[in-house]
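Render this sequence as a predicted structure.
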Amino acid sequence: MGLRSWLLAPVIDKRIAAFQSDLMSKHITEVENIYRQMRGWRHDYHNHIQAIKAHLQLEQYTEIGTYLDKLDSDLTNVDTVVKTGNVMVDAILNSKISIAASKKINVNAKAIVPKDLSISEIDLCIIIGNLLDNATEACLKLSAEADRFIRVYIDVLKNQLYISISNAVGGNVKKSGNSYLSTKDKEGHGFGLMRVDKIAEKYGGFINRQSEEGVFATEIMLPM
């Protein structure tokens, strides 16, 4: 690394950290909006019951069926929200999953995260956000007819926070030595992957990346 690059590296790193911290705040606002919608639905529950009773009294059974179908659809939309137990992780997961789903990517997520963590919630959300961004980008390189998918699993295992994110990928993923490369910039290694690696190193964590048979997977273990 040249002297100029060495001097600029801390400045660039701080700018990236500030930018992604700002993104976290926006994601929290998004999930709070979702929760407000859920509370509003519960508030309206009594009104829904009264409307159904009115249809029933008038023997309007077809209208009751239509009304229940609409409620079922609304409830299904609410149930698709991932609830991990940690508000900030909820924010980033639901935001990224929503984006992936809008791009016709099948997402399956199961996540349990303690409310109180020794790990910075900002750092954790940066890891999850970057991994999901990379997974989404990889899926979008596949044709619309291909099986685009992202699988997310987060839980506490043996006093460590285990994060596993896998996704469909086309062709071979580029490597440099033992490291996989991002395709987000000309140098082949995006800021996102560097941030993930540095945060894992910061907590003495472990990262394992694998690519085989059309699937790319990242596993991260962070000591609790």
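Summary. Residues 83-223 form a domain with the Heat Shock Protein 90 fold (CATH 3.30.565.10). The two ends are 34 Å apart (CA to CA).
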